[in-house]
Amino acid sequence: MGTLERLAEKLADDTMKVQDATGQDRLFMEVSGVLAASSQTLEEAFLTEMRVRLAERIARKFLNSKISEAQVAAETAAKTKT
């Protein structure tokens, strides 16, 4: 992994932490704007890292809801059998 990827990854991790702590779910766009003024290359890598993390978070939430639904269905089925 090169310097660009490491920096973008670390910046995205830190941005996600601050977003979670402050509730500012669009903070990454502000960070992107700061990066755009000095390095379009780092800005693009950072946005890619953010998109990946945000997409993973959405997918994980979806899967967790499916697991919960399956558990409720299994419990309901077990109760109707007894």
Secondary-structure topology with pairs:
Elements: H1 3-22, H2 27-36, H3 40-81
Helix pairs in contact: 1-3, 2-3
Element order: H for helix, E for strand: HHH
Radius of gyration, CA atoms, in whole angstroms = 19 Å
Number of domains: 1
Please give the share of residues in helix: over 70%
Question: Could you say which structural class the secondary elements and strand pairing correspond to?
Answer: mainly alpha
Uncertain ranges:
none
Q: How far apart lie the N and C ends?
A: 57 Å
Number of distinct beta strands: 0
Q: Sketch the major β-sheet.
A: none
Mean pLDDT: 96
Determine the strand fraction and express it as a percent band. under 5%
What is the overall shape?
A: elongated
Number of contiguous helices: 3
Describe what this molecule looks like in 3D.
The chain has one domain. The chain is elongated. The longest helix is centred in the last third of the chain and has 42 residues, at 40-81. It has helices at residues 3-22, 27-36, 40-81. With 82 residues, it is mainly α. Helices cover 88% and strands 0% of the residues. Helix 1 (3-22) packs across helix 3. It contains 3 helices and no strands.
